[in-house]
Design a protein that fits this description.
Elements lengths: L1 E6 L4 E4 L2 E3 L6 H12 L3 E6 L10 E5 L3 H12 L4 E4 L6 E3 L18 E3 L3 H5 L7 E8 L3 H11 L4 E6 L11 E2 L1 E5 L4 E3 L3 E2 H17 L1
Parallel strand pairs: 1-4, 1-6, 4-5, 6-9, 9-10
Antiparallel strand pairs: 2-3, 7-8, 10-12, 11-14, 12-13
Bound molecules: ligand PMT.
Length: 211
Amino acid sequence: MRILITAGPTREMIDPVRFLSNRSSGKMGYALARVAARRGHVVTLISGPVALRPPPKVSLVAVMTADEMLSAVKRYLSRCDALIMAAAVADWRPRRVRAQKIKKTTGPKVLRLEPTADILKTLRTKKGRRVFIGFAAETERMLVRARRKLAEKGLDLIVANDVSRPDAGFEVDTNQVTLMEASGGVRVLPLMTKMKVAARILDWLEASERR
Ligand code: PMT
């Protein structure tokens, strides 16, 4: 299969030296790319700024902001059979990006924000027969919120991720997720390495192609 994977955070600039972002290290998305390429899939990895080396045999597209990630996903989507959005895309960005470094003494006390585009929602109408897999990073009411995102974003599968656990979610090498299918199926996976979580997601994707 030709698989498009997103990973890492996005950065939304405030001024030339400061930005809004999140704790994503890229480990989950890079694990997906590594396992997919090892299995012989053709992998394009769209990545926000992370400190990881791209896995062998993976085409890397480096982006910074949510807007750049949206443009890159748009550009590569038509050449892909599946999209896996593991990236932690910033939901908000400063309304105004200052051209010069804001001075501590004269800078604003309030930062005005505006929402970024929701990549999955924007591309919903372009899905066609492609398989769309999203993640849901939640700290409370995980299953209810993940099920809602699955429907709102028109996904085939959502990987619900309890990011309040110290051994799961952001930055660590392990994860504990629940796979929730559009058809209603729910599979709670035990705590395992992100490489093993990636393998289980790809097992699901490969099986979905045969259905
Ligand atoms: O990178 P790591 O340190 O390994 O951490 C892994 C992870 C916690 C980042 C990963 O497992 C994860 O949960 N990724 C999704 C994080 C996220 O943004 O979740 P969300 O619930 O806010 O978004 C739901 C889905 O919509 C996600 O697939 C997201 O990529 C997508 N999205 C979000 C915002 C936006 N503007 N556009 C989107 O398409």
